[in-house]
Design goal:
Length: about 725
């Protein structure tokens, strides 16, 4: 059994101390009638000297904006119910409001609109650092509220054309167009975007046998050519001062062709003994749509009732065909078809009322139905009876399944402004769900969880804020883990098994956050300490049969996750350079579990987590045709990302990325932007085991591979009218 009480006790003691000193600060601080509100407001005039193109450009001039946009957040990770793939909505989610309201959408959330709304439409921007019963979202460290101008008759248009150059010299054009406006009580936003995604990746892999002798090399070239189209429409209408409604639409279509060429050379005694040429053709059709809306009514006593709904659907069909290439004939020896259809229907309704002047309660219910339909057909060239459904090859696997969840969330949120500087928000949530599965596997299970949360915030001074949270969180299960699927990362593994007996990851989360904002908008420093006590963690487990070694996703027991995030953002006022913004971040994290194959403690497999640092600089030169330039650099360190499977261990060395740009306003009053991104190098060391598992077998092969897409250069031309 995993023991982690020393670390757990340390962080619990630290958390108690933080709460104690926060309360002590309230006792010794002198009361003041001039304490500023915890909301920071930036009027449109603040950004006028930079002549920004979009809301996104405005936000990039605000120190510490990455904190409000989720930088340094620990909302994700193991045991979390958050993230873009969450089912339902919940009180959290996207921390961006437009005119104080939450856009009723999943793919069409407020954050997705920031690069499309022209800056000229903005009246002011709020960074809301406190909690309030008036907010449409809860639980975020900070909330961004974009307030648009309220002219009775206005229309603004924005457009962008761009051109990227890939490693193989291919040029990729794209563009977007949007219209934002108001006509009396009707406001609207329309957007059309065509952003081709072309990627050429050049890779090379070297394999060694158990004695260290060269066994095989693979020269791999991959091309991904996608042409997604995205159409968005948002409408809002104010029937009266008491009744408002909004309606949102989004459609995305994407034809994606993926081609891979491999030259595989086998070696004996250092000489090539065999050379095989393979080609993979994998067309992918990916389409989705979403409809959302909300209605709010204000009662004379100030209470309000709001209801929103979302309906969405997405379909993804990929068909991989592998060919052996020779001089006279191309022979297909593998066909793998994978189809997924996701459907979601969400209704959320709540009633909010104030009492005692400083307290409010929101009570409501959310109903979310989610359905996943899947099918997988694997055909191989074995000499058996051919079938057209399997690409004219012999059927090996024919799996179909449907997974459906019907989930209800009953919630009550109490918000208490204890005084002018302290707020306490308490959430009581009960989750009741049924997950059923039919098809190749049949199962039905009921789940219910009680998920309390306490969020305490104390403005020790107008500049210094302390926040503490304690939360019971329950992660959502990925439906893809229930049914058989495709492992796109391993050419030698055609598919993986599903598991119909999965349980949700659970966690108790303890977090303390300190934020200091310097005067004159000079900068922000934020420190976050966290400890997460994890149960029923998901990882790969053994589901082998008598004749085959197999793994699937499964629950492996308890674990822990702890660390800190330090983020800072400064204007270089001490060098008399207020238009130079310097950002830096440091994240340190440890996470441990007991490996189900090796029965020993190890790091948890988690891409995107772990330890990393970042540094960036932005320099605005408004006197030089509104020129600005900058660079952002990120790098992982401390621990490599490692994945343990039943018969292989994959290690991904520490990665880095950079992004740089220079932008200026020139001919025709247009904005010309030049960008450069890193080569996207990816490396992996994969150790394969034979004659058993990683615990009982022996090393059969060591694969060392790297690939890169090359630095990407781009030019963008933007304008508004």
């Amino acid at each position: 059994m995993l023991t982690h009480s020393p670390n757990r006790q340390f962080f619990r003691n630290l958390f108690v101390l933080v709460i104690f000193f926060g309360a002590l600060g309230d006792l010794i601080a002198q009361p003041s009638d001039t304490i500023e509100d915890s909301t920071v407001t930036y009027p449109a005039e603040f950004f006028a000297q930079f002549q920004p193109y979009s809301v996104n450009d405005m936000l990039q001039r605000i120190p510490g904006i990455n904190l409000a946009r989720g930088g340094g957040s620990t909302r994700g990770g193991p045991g979390s119910s958050q993230g873009g793939n969450r089912r339902g909505l919940g009180a959290g989610g996207d921390q961006v409001l437009i005119n104080g309201r939450r856009i009723a959408g999943k793919e069409n959330e407020g954050s997705s609109q920031l690069s499309r709304i022209p800056a000229r439409e903005v009246d002011y921007i709020e960074i809301i650092r406190g909690t309030s019963g008036d907010l449409d979202v809860r639980g975020g460290t900070q909330v961004i509220n974009i307030v648009l101008t309220q002219d009775q008759a206005r229309t603004s248009f924005a457009y962008e054309v761009n051109l990227d150059r890939a490693l193989d010299g291919e040029f990729i054009p794209g563009g977007k167009f949007s219209a934002t406006g108001q006509r009396g009580a009707l406001n609207y936003f329309l957007s059309a975007e065509r952003e081709p995604r072309y990627n050429f990746r050049d890779g090379f892999e070297t394999a060694f046998d158990a004695e260290g002798n060269l066994a095989e090399t693979v020269n791999r070239d991959q091309i991904e050519d996608a042409w997604p189209i995205n159409l968005v429409a948002n409408f809002g209408y104010e029937f009266s001062s008491s009744d408002t409604a909004n309606f949102n639409l989004q459609w995305t279509g994407n034809d994606n062709d993926q081609d891979t060429d491999r030259v595989i050379s086998s070696f004996e005694q250092g000489l090539v003994s065999k050379r095989v040429v393979e080609r993979d053709l994998q067309p992918v059709d990916d389409d989705s749509w979403e409809i959302g809306g909300d209605y709010m009514h204000f009662f004379p006593d100030g209470s309000r009732w709001k209801t929103l709904f979302i309906i969405n659907e997405s379909e993804n069909l990929s068909a991989r065909s592998r060919y052996k290439i020779n001089e006279s004939l191309d022979t297909r020896d593998l066909f793998l078809s994978n189809f997924e259809k996701n459907q979601e229907r969400i209704v959320r309704s709540s009633y909010i009322f104030d009492f005692s002047g400083s307290q409010s309660i929101e009570a409501g219910v959310e109903r979310a139905q989610t359905i996943l339909d899947t099918s997988l057909q694997l055909g191989l060239l074995t000499g058996g009876e051919a079938d057209d459904r399997f690409g004219g090859l012999t059927p090996i696997t024919d799996s179909m399944g449907t997974v459906e969840e019907m989930r209800y969330e009953y919630f009550a949120i109490h918000n208490w402004s204890m005084n002018s500087r302290m707020t306490l928000e308490t959430t009581l949530l009960f989750e009741d769900s049924t997950i059923s599965q039919t098809g190749s596997k049949a199962n039905s299970r009921d789940f219910n969880f009680f998920r309390p949360k306490v969020d305490y915030r104390f403005d020790i001074t107008p500049s210094f804020q302390f926040r503490a949270t304690v939360e019971k969180d329950v992660a959502q299960l990925s439906f893809r883990d229930f049914t058989a699927g495709v492992d796109f990362a391993d050419d030698e593994q055609n598919a993986f098994e599903g598991n119909a007996e999965l349980r949700q990851e659970q966690s108790w989360r303890y977090e303390a956050n300190f934020e200091y904002r310097f005067s004159e908008d000079a900068g922000v420093v934020n420190t976050n300490l966290y400890y997460h006590d994890l149960d029923d963690l998901l990882d790969n487990v053994d589901v082998s049969t008598e004749g085959q070694v197999l793994s699937a996703r499964g629950n492996i027991g308890s674990g822990e996750r702890y660390g800190f995030n330090l983020n800072s953002s400064f204007r270089l006022l001490f060098l008399n350079q207020p238009n130079i913004l310097l950002t830096a971040g440091l994240n340190m994290e440890e996470s441990t579990v007991t490996d189900p194959f090796l029965d020993r403690e190890r790091e948890r497999s988690m891409r995107g987590g772990g330890s990393r640092y970042s540094i960036g600089i932005r320099h605005d030169l408004p006197q030089l045709n509104n020129t600005n330039w900058g660079i952002d650099y990120r790098r992982e360190f401390y621990n490599d990302y490692t994945v343990w499977d039943i018969d292989k261990i994959e290690q991904y060395p520490k990665d880095f990325s950079y992004y740089s740009w220079i932008e200026t306003q020139a001919w025709g009053g247009l904005i010309y932007r030049f960008e450069a991104r890193d080569s996207g190098e990816r490396c992996r060391i994969r150790t394969r085991f034979i004659a058993g598992t990683i615990a009982t077998g022996r090393i059969g092969e060591l694969e060392d591979s790297c690939s890169e897409s090359g630095p990407t250069l781009a030019i963008k031309i933007r304008g508004t009218f």
